[in-house]
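Q: Hi! First time asking for a complex rather than a single chain. Here are the components, and I think there are two in total. Is that enough to go on?
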Amino acid sequence: MKNFIFLIAAITLFISYNLKAEDSDNLVKLDIYSNVKQIQVGSDFFIAIKLDVAEEWHIYWKNPGDSGLPTEVKWTLPKGVEADGGLIWQVPERIAWSGMVNYGFEHDVYLIQKFKTSRLIDAESLKIKAHVNWLICKEKCIPQDKKIEISIAVGEMFEKSEYSKMIQDLLASAPKQFKSTKSYFKSDDENLEVKLTDMPSDVAQIIDLYLITDSVTDNTVNAKVENGNNKATAKFKLSPYLDVVPAEIELLVLYKDKNGNNKSYETIIKNSK
Amino acid sequence: MKKIVTIVAMMVITTLFASALEIAKVGKKAPAFKLKDYKGNEHKLTDYEGSYVVLEWINYDCPFVKKHYESKNMQKLQKEFTDKGVIWLTICSSAKGKQGNFTESEIDKRRKDYKSAETAYLIDESGEVGKLYNAKVTPDMVVISPNQEVIYLGAIDNIPSADQEDIERAENYVEQALNSAMKGEPVKVKSFKPYGCSIKYAGK
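A: Yes, that's all I need. Here is the structure of the assembled complex.
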């Protein structure tokens, strides 16, 4: 009898443990896509990783805000393949709660990477492996990771994949990279002021700015944006944890173009000091 | 005359309120507070004038707190510095019914399992003290000098992750701040953005 009770207890424990494990396993559904089915050596291609986040949960942007951790992708690449530029992120959601602000994604998000290939590749296919790490939070937080991979054929002809259009659309809606040459920022003991004096030509109105550089400004205080003629000013409150004001900061700028469409760009500006 | 008295009284009250709500800042006086530990004994920050004080925000179920307890990193620090006379106050600001808010027996069990060596484990269910110190995540650390000035505010170390393997190669800013200050040297890193789980304050 004692053995029997023990067995039942063990089975119950086993089932509940497995249910629990399965529950948290399904919080993020991971997929990997390429814009090409077959490439010619020497050409570029894109890989998109989709993280489908369970309802009510969120994962984090490259600047997570007041808590959390950035989602990370580590690539393992075959010889002759190299990442070209950084990870391309979509515009995050500003998640405000309990006196805190996070930047993250509450639904699905695609992280895209451009790759270039060497002309010396001598393989029939290329295996691209990604190790994805993320922290997922609702009230509680769970650090998770998963590995995923995709193969791309190497051949005489370039051949699009069925996801080519999807990736093209994602790239079109992702923030553009803009090289600021005149824009700058300055700071005093309390505040940081961004002066955008050069910007992409289609900007009609700056809506908001998020700092990509972590720990510089207080996330709970919204930027005060003032638009001028082809320029804009944004005031931030400095983070209470800032030790030294950096020489440059990276920004995500959200704007409306001349047709009223929502667009964005990423840029780096320098401290005027 | 009555008017002047009222105005002066109001000014005094406003100043009192303003100073009472002054948020902790490096180089400034540490905001005073009093809290009960999980056994019901009262602790006032001012009781510990003359000693270094460390404040550590905790939520045993947060993976970032687990990182520092399961690796014994936090207990090691607690032991090292309480042995040197430092007062180590662990504070839980999780509201009732929220993650991290435990019963007395559960706290007893966790403390015993982890062999933690803090001076006291304080309960801040209203979140008042957490907000006074601008604590947003667990773990969040504050180092206070014997004359009750904040000398360090923020993360325990410089590698934001939930991975225990990162501890060894990380720079521990709490340890650095205490060691420098005790030697009479300036604290190099006075503040670093803390990483971790958000504190489960009352309300949404």
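A: The domain at 24-198 of chain B is CATH 3.40.30.10 (Glutaredoxin). Let me know if you'd like any chain examined more closely.
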